[in-house]
Amino acid sequence: MNPIYSRIAATGGYLPERVMHNADLEQMVDTSDAWIFERTGIRSRHIAAENEKTVDMAEHAARQALRDADIQAEDLDLILVATTTPDQIFPSTACLLQARLGNRGAPAFDVQAVCTGFIYALATADQFIRSGTVKTALVVGVESMSRIVDWTDRSTCILFGDGAGAVVLRADSTPGIISTHIHADGAYAELLQVPEGRDQLTMQGNAVFRMAVRTLGDIVQETLAENQMGAEDIDWLVPHQANIRIIQATADKLNMPMDRVVTTVEHHGNTSAASVPLALDDAARRGCFKAGQNLLLEAFGGGFTWGSALLRWA
Ligand code: COA
Fold first, then answer.
1. For position 307, what pLDDT does the model report?
2. Where is the Beta-ketoacyl-[acyl-carrier-protein] synthase III C-terminal domain (predicted)?
3. Are 82 and 113 in contact (CB under 8 A)?
4. For residue 88, how far is the Cα from the chain centroid?
5. Which of 82, 136, 197, 248 is an S-S bond match for 121, by CB 3.0 to 4.6 Å?
């Protein structure tokens, strides 16, 4: 039997209308545009409106991906949503989204791996497609990070933003997704978390920074080694958009010039599980990717969790 691969049929993205610039943050905490930009590469981020829910943003991104893939919601065999900021404890955001889209009966569930959530969900959907149980899947990464940020803490509130990104995956006889790699180590939970009994995130920024740089360097090497590839075989790096210095460090380890690295962090900030699919959608819409090019997606986040996906653009 011929192997089955999953291929990205289309992408979608959504950013809330409200833009918060560094100058706005200067009015809220003791910080400056120069400090934020120099240490993080962020100039602005989008913030969900008061009445705008996580599922609203997911729906926008999902509908765009479905439209561009020319697929009806009822044709979806699987709906996965990566999020750490659901509107409700249950039903899952995936079930809420399923009802919005008008699909009935397909399995729908959330994946919670913080900033690595989209890579985890993509890896999960890929396994369902490779096994032959699913032909068409919707994978969404969506976050309302503004709801769990402590807006009085200058060391964290400058980093995050809201948004949603989506992909439609279809079974195909050629890749598509070549390999996915996901990992976790719960021993580091306290470095980046919403502590028990609280509803705002805390982070030891310096320690997280160092771990992210080391771990992302390792995951890209693991991905290349498993596929007997070298860094020169990668056309585009699509990294998690946490901090431009973390992105640059990973690109340096791969010897990749920054013009082959997709960066949206300047205008999106860190949108957690939405960051990789938003970056993918942004670059795809700008026509960056050519058929046959190899893309390396990677992410790191709370847990700690980390992962990558190597895929061929079709
Ligand atoms: N504006 C001005 N000064 C700030 C500030 C802000 N927004 N936030 C912190 N500072 C100050 C600190 O208080 C500290 O002052 P001190 O030296 O007087 O104590 C100084 O800047 C340096 O702080 P430090 O935490 O060492 O800075 P940094 O270079 O590590 O940058 C982060 C801080 C948060 C930008 C950086 O650690 C980071 O990006 N970490 C990873 C975050 C991340 O990606 N998390 C999500 C992973 S998915």
1. 98
2. 224-313
3. yes
4. 21
5. 82
Same domain assignment for residues 252 and 298? yes
**pLDDT (average), residues 5-30:** 98
- Give the total number of structural domains in the chain: 2
pLDDT at res. 127: 98
Predicted local confidence at residue 7, as pLDDT: 98
State the distance from the centre of ligand 1 to the C-alpha of 41, rounded, in angstroms.
Answer: 12
- Select which of 95, 240, 243, 268 is catalytic: 240
Q: Whose CA is nearest to atom 26 of ligand 1?
A: 206
Residue 102 and residue 73 in contact, taking contact as beta carbons nearer than 8 Å: yes
Domain of residue 245 covers 177-312
Structure tokens at 19: 């833009």
Please answer whether residues 76 and 138 qualify as being in contact, where contact means their C-beta atoms are separated by less than 8 angstroms. Answer: yes
Could you tell me if the CB of 271 is within 6 A of ligand 1? no
Instruction: Give yes or no: 181 in active site.
Output: no
Q: Is residue 115 among the annotated active site residues?
A: yes
| pLDDT, averaged across the chain | 98
CATH of the domain at 211: 3.40.47.10
Is 188's C-beta closer than 6 angstroms to any atom of ligand 1?
A: no
Question: Which tens digits make up the pLDDT trace of 248-285?
Answer: 999 999 999 999 999 999 999 999 999 999 999 999 99
Q: Which residues make beta-bridge pairs with 172?
A: 5
Q: Which of 172, 201, 235 is the last residue of a domain?
A: 172
